[in-house]
């Protein structure tokens, strides 16, 4: 057994024993990357073993380098990668087992029909997910773009702590691989519109997918649901119309036993709408999303307050930085926009907010 700096290497035999021969009963589910099994290790730990599909072309060294890069990444809201197995043509990833299901199940599956899913739990999940994305986008070098943020990739612990799974997988498997191309395309309903036109995905695409996820948490609706009337099939389009027409109080999930106050609901809606801005450059950074979700104020008021503070430095939005110190040109370490860009965008936000003020 080889110990790595961050985790360990598992033998195929060991994982075979842990999952009872990868039997059907141990199978948790199947996604675009492979099949996931629940396993029990001799030390008493419970793990999720992901047997990656189509691994034969993956160069051994490259696989190890990438897995080790992902394995070193630690955050309370990311599923921990414990180690991996690379034997003959098999490539498996071993994760900590997260025991309270995934968000897809809580919103649309069996749990949604049988158990309460309160507003506070939903917002805790949204905040945890936003914090993990902030970490992946803003604290790591090179940054990690998830590329497949969606409800089934958000796992949930008993206290509603969210854990993002499958981060780094798109990179690990290499985007030139055909089976990955479908994964890189993300999941229908969550993909940012610029991907369709440019074929390029960056962290701003994750922000878009997060916005869709937040809308899903608020409304309990699927991102795309053909069983609904034509104007309601696409969740993003429907919600924007509802908010613009001042019907935001009608959009909360009817299954919520206790409805959020109009103000709290409005705040979540405004954050979600900003995240799905069709112009990727106008979407907030994930660090900003965390601040907006944590703040008591409504997001557009925050923007307004910031603008008032900035305007003390000058009259035009282009002159609001302190005159003695030039504005930095790159993103600041705390993830906030640089001053010049922040100012330009602010004007646009303000116009936008007018439309969505409720
Ligand atoms: N660490 C884990 N702990 C518990 N369950 C897990 C874990 N990782 C994955 N699962 C579960 O295994 C199932 C299959 O996951 P998988 O990631 O293969 O598919 P997916 O999330 O539906 O799609 P995608 O391939 O886009 O990620 C899901 O139900 C998921 O909740
Ligand atoms: Mg997954």
UniProtKB/TrEMBL annotation:
Residues 303-358 are annotated as: Disordered. Signal peptide: none annotated. It comes from the Eukaryota. InterPro entries: Kinase-like_dom_sf, Prot_kinase_dom, Protein_kinase_ATP_BS, RLK_Ser/Thr-Kinase, Ser/Thr_kinase_AS. Keywords: ATP-binding, Kinase, Membrane, Nucleotide-binding, Phosphoprotein, Serine/threonine-protein kinase, Transferase, Transmembrane, Transmembrane helix. ATP binds at residue 50. It is an enzyme of class 2 (transferase). Residues 22-301 form the Protein kinase domain. It holds the Pfam family Pkinase. It is found in: Membrane. Residues 331-347 have a biased composition (Basic and acidic residues). One of its GO terms (cellular component) is membrane. One of its GO terms (molecular function) is protein serine/threonine kinase activity. It is a single-pass membrane protein. Its EC number is 2.7.11.1. The keyword Cell cycle does not apply. It catalyses: L-seryl-[protein] + ATP = O-phospho-L-seryl-[protein] + ADP + H(+); L-threonyl-[protein] + ATP = O-phospho-L-threonyl-[protein] + ADP + H(+). Belongs to the protein kinase superfamily. This is non-specific serine/threonine protein kinase. The lineage of its organism: Eukaryota, Viridiplantae, Streptophyta, Embryophyta, Tracheophyta.
